[in-house]
Recover the amino acids of this structure.
């Protein structure tokens, strides 16, 4: 069975500072991995996804994520956070071909001026 | 720009009333998902369909919730009778492959008084 954990429920960073949001998954093989962002009052929007190949994945809005098989992690990063990045971020894993995505509990990002 | 649409965007109703939420998946997508999001429980999967057939609705309270796909362009989620604890944001998402990316609609914010 697949599972995904986002250890940080809330994170606060200052505008302009770097950001890393953690995501750990549980699955025996290489999963499909996703990061979604949800702005207040909006649906979830895909930031990036990893299936195979280069383990560093670039996404929209200046985000990137790195797949590390040895650590079962897929952490999301951004070098310089903007106030508009304040939102909730969800990591998701898709593993078995017959199963749909499993979402983590989300990390709420707040940005200080 | 293909998008998942949901109607209504907001619904306020009294306890005991029937509520019907509608979703139009992206044309060509053959998997449809219904989620519920609350502050306390986060994002919960209620049900999902593939090629209009329900694959799993174990996340739904069966006595009051029902989900259907009358045709490939319409998915419905019905609550009868509604209760205050049903107050939440209900999201519809569609996709092509179960373990692949899901495209989310803007959600229906339901308030049951």
């Amino acid at each position: 069975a697949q599972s995904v954990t986002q250890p940080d429920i809330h994170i606060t960073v200052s505008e302009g500072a770097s950001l890393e949001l953690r995501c750990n998954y549980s699955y025996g093989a290489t999963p499909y991995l996703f990061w979604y962002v949800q702005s207040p009052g909006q649906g979830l929007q895909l930031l990036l996804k990893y299936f195979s190949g280069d383990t560093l994945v670039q996404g929209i809005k200046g985000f990137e994520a790195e797949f590390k098989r040895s650590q079962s992690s897929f952490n999301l990063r951004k070098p310089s956070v903007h106030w508009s990045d304040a939102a909730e971020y969800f990591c998701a894993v898709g593993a078995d071909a017959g199963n749909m995505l499993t979402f983590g509990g989300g990390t709420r990002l707040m940005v200080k001026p | 720009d293909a998008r998942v649409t949901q109607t209504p965007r907001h619904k306020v109703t009294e306890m005991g009333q029937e509520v019907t939420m509608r979703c139009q998946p992206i044309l060509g997508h053959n998997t449809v998902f219904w989620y519920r999001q609350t502050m306390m429980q986060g994002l919960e999967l209620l049900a999902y369909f593939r090629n209009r057939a329900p694959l799993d609705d174990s996340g739904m309270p069966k006595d009051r919730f029902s989900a259907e796909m009358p045709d490939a362009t319409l998915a419905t989620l019905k609550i009868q009778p509604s209760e205050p604890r049903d107050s939440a944001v209900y999201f519809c998402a569609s996709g092509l492959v179960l373990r692949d990316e899901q495209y989310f609609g803007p959600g229906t914010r339901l308030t049951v008084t």
